[in-house]
Amino acid sequence: MKKRNCIIGQSGGPTVAINATLAGIISKAKQSGEFQNIYGMINGIQGLIERRIINLLEEFANDDQIDNLKTTPAMYLGSCRFKLSDHTQDDSQFQKIVLILQELGITDFFYIGGNDSMDTVMKLNRYAKFIGIDINFIGLPKTIDNDLFGTDHTPGFGSAAKYVASSMLEVVHDSSIYDLPSITIVEVMGRNAGWLTASSALSRNEYNSAPDLIYLPEVTFDKDRFLADIENVMKKKRFVVVAVSEGIRDEEGNYLDADSRYVKKDAFGHILHSGTGKVLETLVYNRFHCKVRSIELNVLQRCAMHIASKCDLDESFNCGIHAIECALNNLSGQVVSMKRVSNDPYTIEYIHNDVENIANLEQKMPRHFINEQGNDITQDAIEYLKPLIQGEVMLRYENGIPTYLSCKHLL
Amino acid sequence: MKKRNCIIGQSGGPTVAINATLAGIISKAKQSGEFQNIYGMINGIQGLIERRIINLLEEFANDDQIDNLKTTPAMYLGSCRFKLSDHTQDDSQFQKIVLILQELGITDFFYIGGNDSMDTVMKLNRYAKFIGIDINFIGLPKTIDNDLFGTDHTPGFGSAAKYVASSMLEVVHDSSIYDLPSITIVEVMGRNAGWLTASSALSRNEYNSAPDLIYLPEVTFDKDRFLADIENVMKKKRFVVVAVSEGIRDEEGNYLDADSRYVKKDAFGHILHSGTGKVLETLVYNRFHCKVRSIELNVLQRCAMHIASKCDLDESFNCGIHAIECALNNLSGQVVSMKRVSNDPYTIEYIHNDVENIANLEQKMPRHFINEQGNDITQDAIEYLKPLIQGEVMLRYENGIPTYLSCKHLL
């Protein structure tokens, strides 16, 4: 008789690959023959508390649906932004959660997310140990920001990086057509870590040297140096393309779009956050008075499944498989992680780390991945990034648009 | 002995398909065996005047290069924004151009572009007739805006529409994950015509009804009605997704981002055009105080070859073929156009129209393509749009990014 029951949740911001991890867990759980039930919580831990629970074994009875899930962007189970309290201060949420898990006979709890989600896994694991219940709490990483500790890189990052690099190359073609000096500023997501902005450099090829400059949150942003950098490039090139992270900050640690010199208010006094790219567009225009454009890649960089990295989706799926292996070995308080064995040939091992050593820590770009002047990345960074965007995913299309799996519990 | 020599130029804003048209001309010209030389002008008519001319027969000696050109975004030959004067007022530019064309022994002049480019074709054709020289001036359409007169639709539009529809679907998945009311505003290109914004409706499928509202330049924009529309959708749906054309205008004919109530200046008094989406984001936030986001699709919608429409690229190529057929029949002052024979099965005929009946006319969306309230499109519009985004283009990738053709004359 099958004795195990598991429940899976997703949390934090969406990526192209988080459903691939969910697909990996479901696929391996079914294949193992050990699970009587596979549940999903809608809208993460928040939905669990509200008993919004679905039966994933029924929904994914057909393996074809699992394939479809693997190539569906965003989060099939929905998300939440919900921080558990400290159970030593207030354990009411924890009691509620454990009661529901026990009613369902849950043996294994899987939570796919970023830093906040790993905090949830850590707290639940601590509480379970404290009251002595036997449920495995296992975390699975995801974030386009690639800023989780303990893993070589995060599921979801490679696809976002491929989108950024490919879009950058297309923007370069678009920017090159006029016989006029121009400056294009491409704003990439990443509030504290520059990994995704750095990956724009993967667009460089035998004919394209852009992005000509790259600005990352890891380096203090200096407006004068920035303008001087652009001036230098303009001496050599007709059109300049710059990649900037949304999270660059000035010497006082302020985000550019929070800089009071640039704060704009509407008629009602509500502050407009115009975005880092727009702020720099104005700065650059006022200095050079040439054709200037800023492009905010916006949410497309985290949801554009139509140009996902095959490497990323496959690894994200494999992380799900490894999570089931952890569960079957009754490992709790673990976060599935990836360890790079070699760059060439690119080889990854799936490992797990104690969540206590991981939660709430941020992995920024190391200094040797950034050039001395702080306006570009190094060859080391390129070699680290390149394998992650390899391979294309063939989507099914119907009526000219991709066919994704309907998130019927969310829509 | 081959007696013909042709020259080709590109002009106006880039699209994903304008190089496919160039590829069609080169391919058919080579195949016809009638042409001794095939020249290209760099940066359009402006580059021609400056004698920046390249030998396309040499560059595309290899047919594999023509295939590669067909799937390269933006403009291989570069572009210009250059308006010829009226030759009856001042014929100095015309004399210069004709001198260069005669030196090269040009028999056929092809110009690929939008409305302004057709104006160039018309003026050159008038001048040639006036002075009695024997060169065929032939226009080929392109624009993502789909606003050219005399053709069922324009090359470049279908690919942009496919990008907009697919991205819209991905934004919908992204927007659906939180259990909170939210409003997402997607700003689409189109200053005077709403075709591209309308095509966002092609993202609707069995589970997705978004965009919930669509605002087009063809309909006067009323802020109060807009807010009431959103309020109505919010009664039925948790997350609202709205498509707006950058070109919507208020009752006084002013663009939204030129509305003085929203004009923002930086520290130097330079006016910031924040964009229609940003203006509406503020308007909506001030009214509903929920999660609001605006997404400007920006230049990606005109350069994202990675999700081009196969229908569009094939038709754009075929327009090039038809242009050579026109030339071989010594037709001058003609614009290659497409005539829709039927929607189902979708059938197109390649025709040509007198440039005098086409240049400087704008094709907007007809009223019966827009619903009565002016906040959505009709089934007629869907049936018109749908065939244009069909089919996917398999690109070659190298190191994880698409391989395009280097525009070495521009970079």
Description of the molecule:
Two copies of one chain form a homodimer. Chain A has 411 residues and is α/β, with parallel strands linked by helices. Chain A folds into two domains: 4-156 and 305-361 and 391-402, 3-Layer(aba) Sandwich (Rossmann fold); 158-303, Phosphofructokinase domain (Rossmann fold, 3-Layer(aba) Sandwich). Helices cover 35% and strands 19% of the residues of chain A. The first copy, chain A, has 13 helices and 15 strands. In chain A, strands 3-2-1-4-5-12-13 form a seven-stranded mixed sheet, sandwiched between helices. A four-stranded parallel sheet of chain A has the order 7-8-6-11, sandwiched between helices. Chain A has a two-stranded antiparallel ribbon with strand order 9-10. In chain A, helix 6 links the parallel strand 4 and strand 5. In chain A, helix 1 (18-32) packs across helix 12 (310-328). Chain A is elongated and about 75 Å long.
Architecture blueprint of SSEs:
The structure is a homodimer of 411-residue chains.
Chain A: E1 4-10, H1 18-32, E2 35-41, H2 44-49, E3 53-55, H3 56-59, H4 63-70, H5 92-103, E4 108-113, H6 115-131, E5 136-141, H7 157-175, E6 182-188, H8 195-198, E7 213-215, H9 223-236, E8 239-245, E9 264-265, E10 271-272, H10 276-288, E11 291-296, H11 300-303, H12 310-328, E12 334-343, E13 346-354, H13 379-385, E14 397-398, E15 401-402
Parallel strand pairs in A: 1-2, 1-4, 4-5, 5-12, 6-8, 6-11, 7-8
Antiparallel strand pairs in A: 2-3, 9-10, 12-13, 14-15
Helix pairs in contact in A: 1-4, 1-12
